[in-house]
Design brief:
This protein is α/β, with parallel strands linked by helices and 363 residues long. The chain folds into 3 domains: 1-21 and 35-89 and 166-244, Rossmann fold; 102-164; 247-359, Coagulation Factor XIII, Chain A, domain 1, CATH 2.70.50.60. The chain has 8 helices and 17 strands. It has helices spanning 25-30, 66-74, 106-116, 121-135, 150-161, 180-195, 207-213, 231-243; strands spanning 4-20, 36-51, 55-59, 81-86, 90-93, 168-171, 199-203, 216-221, 224-229, 246-248, 254-256, 261-270, 286-299, 301-309, 314-316, 329-340, 351-359. The strands form 5 sheets. The chain has a 6-stranded mixed β-sheet, with helices on both faces. Strand 10 (246-248) and strand 11 (254-256) form a beta hairpin.
């Protein structure tokens, strides 16, 4: 039986929202200066568990309670009701600069932050070079962190968090601050951690990351769990609710638009081979075969597609018009091949493809 890394049971967290401050001691004694406040419930009866070795996603709109939940999991906030039980050595990367002293250098903050996370000075000294190497802050490590940009903060904090030997890593949306290259390296580190059987809890608005990397996920709405389970299904439901006016294909996938023509599947080929593949390398001649289903004859259709890295950065976003391919009409079932010469990848990692179709001249 798989062990649990984390248990969250019936967690409720409320905050007081004060509207009026006491203006004097006299008013307070007289009972006229009492602070007026409302109670705001950030989390309400939230229950789930995370198994050892899982990558677990948390999605939801801003203000849905995601960050509050992670702070309860990390022990920064205490629930008003319910409990959080952590069964593995945990490292959490939440608010920007949390655990850093602005007047201290990056070097000193590495040791300070590592101490907060439970590492001895001797142990972190052994890992110090790896931390600096991953952060890429060789030239700034002895500068006060108050001089760092937000991206530099994140790079150093993440480098520390992954080098304190955590079995459970909790990451908030803070990674969105980093540049594309750093985000990709973080995602590659997540894959490495997952392959090592470590557990990751990830809050993100990057739905492709949730869909492709997470084993399970929950969806929070106004502090309650709206859904839990398969990440792809959850992302589809979340996207449908957030955007509305979305059609579904026969396979249940989310689709927008009129549905007069639909892309049913996409195949990838490299070079002149007719054997579909799942991988390609930078510089490869890539051929995408876009299978379509048209309810009626569609005059002069244009098919566009986007290939993205797992972190959301775009590799390429051409359309059939760009390569001179504009059929007079498409109808019934068929396929269109689009050739991309010398595809350039900024880094290694998994990618996803999104497609759309419109009438030529309508956009």
């Amino acid at each position: 039986m798989t062990e649990l890394a984390l248990e969250v049971e019936h967690v409720t967290k409320t905050f007081r929202l004060h509207h009026q401050k006491t203006s004097s001691i006299k008013q307070l004694i007289a009972g006229k200066g009492r602070n007026r406040f409302d109670e705001f419930t950030a989390l309400k009866d939230v229950t789930f568990d995370v198994k050892e070795g899982e990558v677990f996603g948390v999605i939801g709109q801003n203000g849905s309670g995601k960050s509050t939940l992670l702070k309860c999991m990390a022990g920064i906030l205490q629930p008003n009701a319910g409990s959080v039980r952590v069964h593995k050595r945990m490292s959490a990367l939440l608010e920007l600069g949390a655990g850093f002293h602005p007047e201290l250098s990056g070097r000193d903050n590495v040791f300070l932050n590592a101490a907060i996370l439970g590492m001895s000075r001797k142990d972190i000294a052994v890992r110090f070079d790896d931390i600096v190497e991953f952060s890429g802050l060789h030239s700034f490590i002895d500068s006060p962190v108050k001089t760092y940009s937000s991206g530099m903060y994140v790079r150093l904090a993440f480098a520390v968090a992954i080098n304190v030997d955590p079995r459970l890593l909790i990451i908030d949306e803070i990674l969105a601050v980093g540049d594309v290259s750093f985000q990709q390296r973080c995602l590659e580190k997540f894959v490495e951690f997952r392959n090592e059987g470590r557990t990751i809890v990830l809050v993100t608005h990057a739905m492709n990351t949730v869909r492709d990397m997470c084993d399970r996920a929950i969806w929070l709405t106004h502090g309650t769990v709206t859904g839990e389970g398969d990440p792809s299904e959850l992302v589809d439901d979340y996207t449908e609710t957030m955007l509305g006016n979305i059609n579904r294909g026969g396979d249940g996938s989310v689709r927008r638009g009129s549905g007069e023509i639909q892309i049913s599947s996409v195949e990838l080929f490299v070079g002149d081979s007719e054997l579909p593949v799942k991988r390609f390398r930078t510089g490869d001649r890539v051929r995408l075969r876009l299978h379509y289903q048209a309810e009626k004859s569609i005059p002069r259709p244009v098919i566009a597609f986007t290939i993205e890295h797992l972190g959301g950065s775009t590799v390429t976003a051409p359309c059939t018009r760009d390569v001179g391919l504009i059929p007079d009409a498409l109808s019934g079932n068929g396929a269109v091949d689009v050739v991309l010469d010398d595809v350039a990848l900024t880094s290694t990692g998994r990618t996803s493809t999104t497609t759309c179709t419109w009438h030529y001249g309508s956009m």
